[in-house]
Design goal:
192 residues, mainly alpha, 10 helices, elongated
Length: 192
């Protein structure tokens, strides 16, 4: 039965994440149900705890409380850093969500570190040349541009355009929270 509570917690928290875009009240109810299930198990599984932390952080972000979401995600990423149970893709999900929060709070230097780690992990896992690499390159390029590292940004964009499985345009379309095409701000556009 303990395994059932972990699965119930993870599924409720994942459902909260999915519902968030269309019905925040329903998302909050599902998250609460997931948190209760997680609290009812004497030994919560890392995957269930992580899914609920990601859902809680997403709810906080939706409420405009991004600064409160960041420590949750940072703590979860630190705790999971040495995990032999959780697959690397789960850490990449945490890194991506934390990177989004960093960008939302103008912490681009921190976002660059995370996007670079994700890109390295994808390549180390043999996923170079895939659409996933194209998205990671686009995210990393945006972070570099926002940080003011334009040469490195353009190099990432060049590499993204060379990804055989996805064009740069497709990658940028899929990239998370870009905010402006190729990381160009309205202030920079005014200089044209």
């Amino acid at each position: 039965r303990i395994g059932d509570l972990n699965l119930l917690a993870a599924s409720d928290c994942a459902a909260a994440w999915a519902l968030l875009r269309r019905d925040r009240a329903a998302a909050e109810r599902r998250f609460e149900a997931g948190r209760q299930a997680l609290g009812s198990t004497p030994s919560p599984a890392e995957f269930a705890r992580e899914d609920c932390i990601r859902a809680e952080a997403a709810l906080l972000q939706a409420q405009g409380r991004v600064e409160q979401a960041i420590p949750l995600l940072e703590q979860s990423l630190r705790r999971d850093g040495g995990s032999t149970v959780n697959p690397k893709w789960r850490r990449d999900l945490l890194r991506t969500q934390l990177g989004e929060a960093y960008r939302a709070t103008d912490r681009f230097a921190d976002a660059v570190v995370l996007s670079e780690q994700t890109l390295q992990n994808l390549r180390a896992a043999g996923r170079a040349g895939t659409a996933a690499e194209g998205v990671a390159l686009a995210n990393h390029a945006v972070n570099l541009c926002r940080l003011g590292e334009f040469l490195a940004c353009f190099e990432m964009q060049r590499q993204g355009a060379a990804v055989p499985d996805a064009s740069l345009a497709e990658s940028l379309e899929r990239a998370t929270l870009i905010g402006a095409p190729l990381g160009v701000t309205d202030d920079a556009r005014a200089l044209d």
